[in-house]
Specification:
Number of strands: 0
Helix content: 55-70%
Radius of gyration: 22 Å
Shape: globular
Low-confidence stretches: 61-66, 434-440
Oligomer: single chain
Mean pLDDT: 75
Number of helices: 18
Structural class: mainly alpha
Order of helices and strands: HHHHHHHHHHHHHHHHHH
Amino acid sequence: MVNILLCINIIILLICICIYLIALKSKKAPRLFALYLGAFILFIESHIILAITTSFNFGTSEWFFNGEFDYNTKTEVITSINLFIIGMILGSVFIASTITYKSSSYDVTFENKSIARFSWLLLVSILPFVVVYLINLIAFISSNGFYSLYINGNKISGGYILDLFFLTLYSLLISLKNKKKILFIILCVACVYLFIGTRLEFMFKVFPVLIYYILISKNIHKYFRLKNILAISILFWGLIFSMQYSVSARDNIEMGSNIITTFLKQQGVSVNVIGIAIKDKNNSLLSESVILSPLYDSAISLANSLVGVQSNGNSVEFAENSFSLSHKLSYLEDPSAYLAGYGVGGAAIAELYIVGGYLACLIGGMLTYIFISILEKIAKKSFFNFIFVMLITGKILYSPRGEFLSFMSADRMLILFLIFTFSYKFLLATSNKKMSFKNE
């Protein structure tokens, strides 16, 4: 039965892809969903594909636990994933019948001299602080070793400066006419994140640029020419090799003869998270409130930072009082490993299952597709909307391995963006200029 469900999963996924491509060709589907579908395949489907095509044993991972699940748990895991995909199919059908994405809507520009001047001024102002941050980073690596960044990288103060630096670069990328130099700087600095090991930061710094191009490109098919495909493929696999090498060196894991298989095993651990959540679903530590984790935990973190209280990291109190499913499952699975700083990761489908079982997984898939469609629709309305969509879409792309409502978490970049917007509005108001985030 498990093997049959695995095959059904692949069939449903292919149906979802085909329906999406047909709707996309008819301009009745959001381009952003292509990125989400790719992330979903990487973080969820990779384990299932490996289980079918290789000797990989479904239900195990590279993390600190060895999760061989029983027959019923495996069945529920695959069924939950299948229902989520069916939900995305239903969402695509609903959007295709209600929304049309006109080709002219992709030919947008937010070239704005006042925003560009404000961004240049801000960029020049923070450059000295960026240099100080880089000096601290080099000193930290010299004292603690290169791979200590994986564990203690958050101890380097001033990371918000680099976030603000990227935010001003995004603003310049959108508001300037000549964008090539800004794009080159963004990619170069973002790649630094890859080699110091912060892959999640790398995703949130590079993905907004990809989102930007997908949203503005009128003739996006030109990016799929042979030379562009080859260049992107070389870059992609080069990044995968670098990421895999860094992770393996950090955890003292042999890379193995097949880098691709090893990489996919480590990325698809969310399937195991779903299995653990189903296995522990009756534990009193788990409740429907886990889906509110991005709201609750980010509010607590923000409040603590305002009063100068620093988080102690993994602790029994946090596992019991937090809404985070990742922390709760990690503590339930192996308390000693959790207290040592390790974790099982997260999965949006696992949260949905805890909240409402199969029905919640189905509805969650529909809502995900509909929300991405709405985001793409509103992104073209203003400069503010465009950058906002760029920032939160990266979180949505990570949600298969994170939290269902991850886009609602108040991270530093979003807070800085609100400050950036308010400051720009205030300066225009005080200079007696008419404020507008629309095209100039």
